[in-house]
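Re: How this chain folds, sequence and tokenised backbone to follow
Notation: Tokens come from a learned vocabulary of local backbone shapes, not from coordinates.
Start of record: The labelled sequence and token lines come straight after this line.
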Amino acid sequence: MIVESTANHGPDCGSICNESAASGGRGPPVLVDAWLVPTFFGLIMLVGLVGNSLVIHVVTKHQQMKTITNFYIVNLATTDILFLVCCVPFTATLYPLPSWIFGEFMCRLVNYLQQVTAQATCITLSAMSVDRCYVTVYPLQSLRHRTPRMALTISVSIWIGSLLLSTPVAVYQRLEAGYWFGPQTYCSEVFPSARLQKAFIIYSFLAVYLLPLLTITACYAFMLKRMGQPSCEPHRQQLPPERAAAMRARVSRMVVVMVALFLICWGPIQVCILLQAFGLRSYVLYKLKIWGHCMSYSNSSVNPLVYAFMGNNFRKAFKHAFPAIFLWRTRGRVRVGNMDPEEGGEIDHQAPKGEAEMHFLSSGS
């Protein structure tokens, strides 16, 4: 449901494609989409694979980075890598080639994996928001309930749920014969009825976009509200007003980036699919859908930048893992795990892991 199943000559092209087909005696025209979209997909794939691989490397390399939140970030990076490797190359071929050339099995598998990974990504982002809200608002209580086993259980449940709920895509995806400057083969969704197709599209819109967006927004709004209030939990360290205000401003900026990124990357394609499901079909909508696909795919490449490298701990761990890259910025060696003064001092390496993570999350890193 997330990906366009045909190339620029698909049934959404409307009258323009019909006119071009009627001209006869010529091969398919070479449109800008045929090279521009695959080039953009290739850039997304390169940046996404490098960025997500670095996230996994940094977390697994440094013991201080093995926190509950970073477990979710690694799960998100793994999902993005799976999506980039298994789906993006096949989708890129739809634009320069007139037909689907990979057979019916790959037609079902590629579209199924796209739905699974897109759904797993969005639900993982929601789980991260709930987790960060919980640990920021109830830091001491969260130390008792937030365990690696719980994080693993949630991540496995997300994957199992995504695999099961995406089954209709694999069942109803099939090859269909078509005509566009000659006989062609398209990889399309063929539901038993229009009502069933609309129901699944509405479900996909809710599960993959609207509910995660509402969850992310609500969690961070509640978190910011509570950060501006005095703590009600005993023994919780209180920050000076100036430092607390700076911290809230920093977290607020990150919240705006997170919500805007999710809204911009996933909104266009979901709205286009929803409009198309209710009978709106035009060449303009088809072109908007191509742009929407590019935006949704780019989410897999920018996730590492927003959810990992915007945090000070990730940046310092990355510098520690690849010091040669940052020789031009060296001002002395920085130990992994230390925090900047603006973040409330240092986290001692001997401090309990839960306290370090609580400080890490409360600072919005």
Summary: The longest helix spans residues 241-277. Strands lie at 173-179, 183-189. Confidence is low (pLDDT under 50) at residues 1-25, 232-236, 332-365. The first strand starts at residue 173 and ends at 179.
